[in-house]
Structures are given as C-alpha cells and as structure tokens.
Amino acid sequence: MRVLLKRLVAASPPRPPALNSIGVFVCPRKYEAERAWRRSKASMLAPDLPDVWSPLSPASSTLFSPARHHDNDDLKPKIINGKAIAEEIRLGIASEIRQMKDSTGKVPGLAVVLVGKRRDSRSYVRYKVMACEEVGITSILAELPEDCPELDVVNAVSNFNKDPSVHGILVQLPLPQHMDEEKVLSAISLEKDVDGFHPLNVGNLAMRGREPLFIPCAAKACIELLLRSGVELIGKNVAVIGRSRVVGLPISLLLQRHHATVSTIHAHSKNPEDITSEADIVISAAGVANLVGRNWLKRGAVVIDVGTNPVEDPNSEHGYYLTGDVCYEEALQVVSAITPVPGGVGPVTIAMLLSNTLDSARRAYGLS
Amino acid sequence: MRVLLKRLVAASPPRPPALNSIGVFVCPRKYEAERAWRRSKASMLAPDLPDVWSPLSPASSTLFSPARHHDNDDLKPKIINGKAIAEEIRLGIASEIRQMKDSTGKVPGLAVVLVGKRRDSRSYVRYKVMACEEVGITSILAELPEDCPELDVVNAVSNFNKDPSVHGILVQLPLPQHMDEEKVLSAISLEKDVDGFHPLNVGNLAMRGREPLFIPCAAKACIELLLRSGVELIGKNVAVIGRSRVVGLPISLLLQRHHATVSTIHAHSKNPEDITSEADIVISAAGVANLVGRNWLKRGAVVIDVGTNPVEDPNSEHGYYLTGDVCYEEALQVVSAITPVPGGVGPVTIAMLLSNTLDSARRAYGLS
C-alpha cells in the first residue's frame, strides 16, 4: 500500500496568558471565552419540548414576535463574524486540551485521509491540519495517489480505526471517480466518525430524545453562529436550501430539534423564492454562486450562507475567488444579519471538527 | 415471567378463485390487483434524482404546473378510499405468501407484544392479528400484565429475536409509565424491526442513496395513498403537520426522498396555517381532532389525514367516535382529494405492516 503517513504532532498547546504585575491575567476577555466556549450537548441538541397543541388558543396568533425590521426601518445588518467566533471556540478547545494533557498526559488525535492532488481538497486539508496544530490536536495525514485502488483507502481507514491515539477519522471528499464513497465512509468506525455521516448518527440526530455521538460539523456551525448572534430558533420559519447529507440534511434535522419550523428546498423545488421570502432565517447550502437574490429574502431575515463557491477570476491571486450562495450586496439591503463568505460558516465548521475530535478523545479516555 | 403466549396460526392462506365453467378466473379485477400490488422498494424510496440547480433559467417559473382548481371551479373532491386500497394490497400479499408456502413450506411470522389492558391498544392489536390471519401470516401475541417489570418485556422481545419463525416484532405503544419505551424498542433486532423505528433504519431513510431495511408503516401508507391516487410528488409543496418518530418524522423524510419540498410543522410553529395554506399536499399527523380547518387549506390541495382521535360521545356504541385532525366537512369545500377517518390511512398502515413482515420473511428465507 502506497500511503504517505505524516504524523504532525502539534507543538505544546498554547499556554494560558501569564499573570501581569498585579496578579491579573492578561487578555481576560479571551480567557473568559475559554470557559464559556463549550456549548453543552443538551443545548446543541436543544431541549425536548413536548408537542402540546393548543388549537383553540393557537400560539400562532399570540406568540409570534413581530419582525423587528419593517420597510421604513433603517436597516444596519449585522455581519456575523465567523472568524472571531471560531477563534473563541478554538481558544476554549485549546484550554481543555491543555487540561487533558496535564491530567492524563494525552491529547486528541485526528486522522485525515487525502486521495489525489485536487487543489481545493489539499487546501481544505491544510486548513484542518493547521487548526489541529493550533489547539494541540495531533493530526495524522494519510496521502494516497489518485490512481490507488479503493481497498488501499479502506485499509488506511481500518488502520486508523485500530489506532488508539486516533479519535477522529475524516476522508476528504470527493474521492476519485473509481471509488465508492459510501463504501469508504462506511469503513470509519462509529466512535471515530467525527464528520457525523454514519447512518446511525444521522438517525440519532433525526430522533428527538436520542443523542448522536457526533453532530455533523457544518450543522453545528450554523447553530453556533445563530445562537451566538442571539437569534431565537423556537417556532421560527427557517428555509434550508440544499439537502446534501453533508450539510443540508443535518442542518434541517438539527434545526427541527431546536423547534424551528423547517422547510427544505432543493433543486426540484418549484418557486423556491416563495418559501424563502417568508422565512425568518434562510440557510443556504446549495453550492450555487449567487442563487439567492434580494427577492428571495424577507426584510429583516437572518441569512447563514454555507456555500463556498469558486468563481474564476484571472485577476485574483489563485485564478479564482470564493463566493457564497447568496448575492451578498443585494442581501445587505434587506437582511438583519448575514454571514460573509469567506469568514462566516467555514472557520466555525473547522472549529466544530476540532470540538468533535476533542469530544471523542474525552469519551475514549473516560473523561466526563 | 408471566407472559401469555398465543400462537395464532393463520388458516391456510386464501386460495385463488376457482376457474368458472368456461375456464376463466372469477373476480379477475381483484386478482389483477394481486400481481400489481407490490411497489418496488426503488419506487417507494423514489429515484435518486441529482440536485442540479439551474438558477439562471429557474425551474421555478417554467415548470410549475398551475393548480388544477381555481376559485370558480366546481370542485368534486375525490374521497381516497383507504379500505379498498388496503384490500388490494392484502390480496397481493396473500398471493405472495401462498407462493412462499408452496415453494418453501414456510410462511411469515409476526410477534406482537401487548402490555396491560388499554382498550385502544387491545383494539389495535386485534386488528393487526386479524389482518395477519387474513393474508396467511402467523401471528404470536405475548400478553403481559400492566404491572410487570420492564425486564419481562425486554425478555419477551429477546426471545422473539431468537425465534426463526418470527420475522417481525412489534411492541404495542404506549407502554405503562414505569417502563422506558426507548429501552424496550431498542431490544428489537434490526432485522425484525418491522415498524422501522430503529435509529439505523431512520438514518438510512433520511440519507438518499441508502436503503433502510424497513420504512415505517404510516409513512409508507401515505405514499401509497398519494401514488395510487395519481398525485405527483416531485417539486410539490407538502406541509407535514406533526413530527413524531412514529408518523411525522418518517413521512417528512420519505417525502423528501420523493423530491417534494417539505415543511414540517409542529406544536411550536407560529402561524402554521400560513404554511399549510400554500401547500399542494397537506399531511396531518398531529393527533389533534379538528386542528386543520378550511382556512388552513389551499383550494385544490390534497389532504392525507393520519390523525385518529377518539371523541367522547355517549350516543355512540363504544362511548366515543373516531375523527381525524382535519375538519372533514370544511375541507370538502376546498380540497381536490382527501382521505376519510376512519377508512383512510389506518387500513393501509396495517397493510404496510403485513408488507414489511413479508419482506422480512423473504429476506430471512433468501427469496429475491
């Protein structure tokens, strides 16, 4: 098997800031964030509110908080800063990993399987590996050639399944066309499925009252961004655009657990803008540049743009630039809050991968 | 363990109709239905259409078939006859079971676990057992007393897991309050989970491209009723009212596989009628009598009413009558098609339980 294995042992996790001359921590704001970073699983999965219908005095007419923004309001949309939120989360993770190392001598490990030389895949993997290093997670990168047989990839995954220093395994998608992604992903053991794509994880995410071992990273990122921005979810109309198993499906399922009223739109939906333009929150994960124009959005809506679409541009450094699914400039004219691309969902999604890996290591080491 | 086991060996499956005096089958219509009854798994799970977005020439404006019914039309709503559809399906199942018995000497077996003396539960179990007998499925009923320990129920399930003559196990819900339903249901082996409530089944239902071993019966029944009534699903706006794991959740997931645009409404939804009144199809599984009034429905909508709600009525034979979630008389004034309660979804749901049990037996006996 031609596998290039790189074990990238992270430098010691960043130390906490030194006490200053009067015995007070420097950067207290950041280190407050460390303690506050961790959203409990219960809050990420939301309380299991009983479904008690009251048709005679419906919630519908009395409980709906009116939109905060009307046509005559002077809208100053909030730009939701994913980079800053991700940094806060990473600081919290780094702090926990230091404690883990101090008490057990061990740190979490993430294995990444990369097949071929796709430039975008290599970039994504580089970001993930760098993020691991930053928080003190040991990353192991298995690089396989484009033309290797599928069995080599399955074997690489199987070896990581057995390695007790590895707590999370991710296979960078897409795989070369001659491989069956389903089969390769199925080889990842449930306990190390930090992407949360295993059907048992998806089933447990779908069923209120049950707990998946891992929640898919992009779905977690969307909820983090919304909750940290003070956006209420219970009873809100949310349009999710896209239904992929990586993004759209788990986002829809997780939002339902947060008691939002979710409409899932896809490429076969007729008049999707009729639904999105009534939604309090629009989450777009279609992977189509500039799909969502101004007429798709209600005034005052909150927009989370998961799309990261390369657009060719000979004038930019790499020959392309990245843009979201949402026409950003148009949206700014109507929304109350929006995530930019890049710098929105992306960094928080990577932070959630680190968080899932840490959770997995805590389980493996029997830490509460 | 105080378990009363009743093995109800079905009488021989009903024989095909005899040839009449001129050598032609009697009741040809019914026996044509036998051959046509079986919807392939592929058609029940729907084709896996790729999500190709075309934002520049959107499907939205060109492909939407206008509603067939306008305000001035003289609506003659179609009453979808669940009893007749269920009978057709049962005839088909009986025919397959005869063939199975002829070729292997074996028939499918369904085990039902009933705890306590709840009148409604006993009724439901009686219907299921009768339906088994009618098609040639052997049913085994395990009756346990209301006050038995949870472990007795788990043991009953475990024994059925080991019994090779049992291909499906169902535990009649609700269980007494001192029992953990989750724990009891988890004891049912995946291969015999004919209700389809196992999280792995739910995950495989949620993920396009994967196949659950069993699709939950009520969800299958809704699709059967819609497809047999000629209702197109691709791209249609469907409002599902209710999100229980028994009904609402699997219906939403299955409809998404059929490429409908699904909005899932629940007790915390604000202004649910705003969404339902824009839907081409409304499926109500809230369990609230008369929740859905005329103002919740678009003119020409198709309504599938899964609700089966007892309403006290001292004048009726049993002291109550059954009604759906939908105000039937009001709905008749606007809809293009509707299922009645009773006689709509209920009988087809039981037929789907028989179908799942037959599928399980076919798998166990290695039949294609």
What is the overall pLDDT average of chain A?
Answer: 88
Which fold does the CATH topology of the domain at 202-208 and 215-348 in chain A refer to? Rossmann fold
Oligomer: homodimer
Discrete helix count of chain A: 13
Summarize the helix and strand pattern of chain A as letters: EHHHEHEHEHEHHHEHEHEEEEHEH
| N-to-C span of chain A | 38 Å
CA gyration radius of chain A, whole angstroms = 21 Å
Largest sheet of chain A: 6 strands, parallel
**Structural class estimated from helices and strands of chain A:** alpha/beta
Outline of chain A: globular
Q: Strand content of the residues of chain A, in percent?
A: 5-15%
What does this structure look like?
Two copies of one chain form a homodimer. Chain A has 368 residues and is α/β, with parallel strands linked by helices. Among the domains of chain A are: 1-11 and 104-189, Leucine Dehydrogenase, chain A, domain 1 (Rossmann fold, 3-Layer(aba) Sandwich); 202-208 and 215-348, NAD(P)-binding Rossmann-like Domain (Rossmann fold, 3-Layer(aba) Sandwich). In chain A, 37% of the residues lie in helices and 14% in strands. Chain A is built from 13 helices and twelve strands. Chain A has helices at 28-36, 41-45, 59-62, 82-104, 119-135, 150-162, 181-186, 199-206, 217-228, 248-257, 272-276, 328-332, 345-364; strands spanning 4-8, 78-79, 109-115, 138-144, 168-171, 237-241, 261-265, 281-284, 302-305, 309-312, 320-323, 337-338. In chain A, strands 2-12-9-8-6-7 form a six-stranded parallel beta sheet. In chain A, helix 4 (82-104) runs parallel beside helix 13 and helix 5 (119-135) crosses helix 13 (345-364). The longest helix of chain A has 23 residues, at 82-104. Mean pLDDT of chain A is 88; it is low at 16-34 and 55-72. At the A-B interface, helix 3, helix 8, helix 10, strand 7 and helix 11 of A face helix 3, helix 8, helix 10, strand 7 and helix 11 of B. Chains A, B: Residues 216-363 form the Tetrahydrofolate dehydrogenase/cyclohydrolase NAD(P)-binding domain. Chains A, B: This is Methenyltetrahydrofolate cyclohydrolase.
